[in-house]
Specification:
5 strands, alpha+beta, 219 residues, Nuclear Transport Factor 2, Chain: A, five-stranded antiparallel sheet, globular, single chain
């Protein structure tokens, strides 16, 4: 549903794409950059800063070769994103009936298809378009929300919030993006749920493995 809800204009779609990719590729910073996962705010601020520094240094390279960007992400394996938890929430009740192989394939294919679909939006993103707002959550809680704003090309601001959770090891990780009140996890769960009911989980996984995020007719 989030893909449909943001289909009214290419600018809004690009905001959704950038927000998703900020979540997915934040860990690909150079070794010299330090990612601080001690609090929700620090994680988003430090990872975004590192990501944007890498983009500035390698923008032309990534424009020519998107696979170079994907390779860095894969090598880091998204250490600051709770990919398994996010995928579990996206699949909802279907996660429980999926076998271990299907779960692994879904996580891998969903992440990769998003990267390949929206890579162009990320490559053109610059630091002046992102603002991380002051944190208002309870420091002692194990869940939190980091609020940010993304400035579109026309100057308007879009509210983008990151849902965070503390892992068993005490590290904070991101698992959802909420854009103007619309959760990507919930939206994809609705879209995938309908398609799974109609065609089965295996068919959805194979479609994602072929590189298509959108269900047929929902691009």
């Amino acid at each position: 549903m989030i893909l449909l809800s943001f289909s009214r204009g290419s600018g809004s779609i690009r905001v959704m794409a950038i927000a998703m990719l900020l979540l997915l590729v934040a860990p690909f910073a150079r070794a010299a950059a330090t990612i601080d996962s001690s609090s929700p705010q620090q994680l988003i601020e430090s990872s975004s800063k590192a990501m944007l520094a890498d983009l500035d240094a390698n923008r032309e390279k990534y424009r020519r070769d998107k696979k170079a960007l994907y390779k860095v992400v894969d090598e880091k394996f998204l250490p600051h994103v709770d990919v398994d938890f996010a995928a579990q929430q996206v699949l909802g009740k279907h996660w429980r009936t999926a076998d271990a192989t299907q779960r692994t394939r879904f996580v891998t294919a969903f992440k990769q298809s998003l990267l390949e679909t929206y890579g162009d939006a990320l490559v053109e993103f610059t630091a002046d378009r992102l603002r991380v707002l002051p944190y208002q959550g309870d420091p002692a809680a194990d869940r939190g929300t980091v609020r940010t704003e993304i400035r579109r090309s026309n100057g308007s601001l879009v509210a983008v919030n990151y849902s965070m959770r503390k892992t068993a090891t005490g590290e904070w990780k991101a698992w959802d993006v909420v854009i103007e009140g619309i959760s990507y996890v919930k939206s994809f769960r609705e879209d995938f749920g309908l398609e799974i009911e109609q065609k089965g989980l295996e068919a959805v996984i194979k479609r994602l493995e072929a590189g298509a995020v959108h269900p047929p007719g929902k691009a």
